[in-house]
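step: validate -> pass
step: tokenize input -> pass
step: predict -> running
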Amino acid sequence: MLGGGASTGLSFQTDNNSFSLAISPDIGYFMSDNLAIGANLPISFYSQENYRSIGYGITPFIRYYFGPPSEFMFFVTGAFGISGWSSKYDDTTNSSSAITGSAGVGGTYFLNESIGLEIILGYTYDKTKDYDPSSNIALSAGFQIYFGR
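step: predict -> pass
step: emit ->
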């Protein structure tokens, strides 16, 4: 399976024009009929006036689909990995790394034998060096291409 999600933001304000782009491609392999393992590669960019930030990471995941192949399938997923970021404000640079984890439930609607649209309700946790941990519950959407389903 191959897929992911993407988001972008463009903000024009009188004081602060900003641009953000985030993509999160993933690739996975079915170890058995309903069990897939793989990795997600989140990449992000943010720019505003004199500030720039780049984020990156690798997050191995496991996903289990319930039931035989059908038009709509439920799944549970979990991931644990590392991420980092680097930023520059005027002439000052900063960088850090984080440990990240997530768990969620979701569903995939198959448009045809190979392409599925998915939605996931999940919990994420990040612990960045020198910062307090952060966590959230979020609803995300994406797509997957399934080879040999």
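step: describe -> The first strand starts at residue 2 and ends at 11.
step: cleanup -> pass
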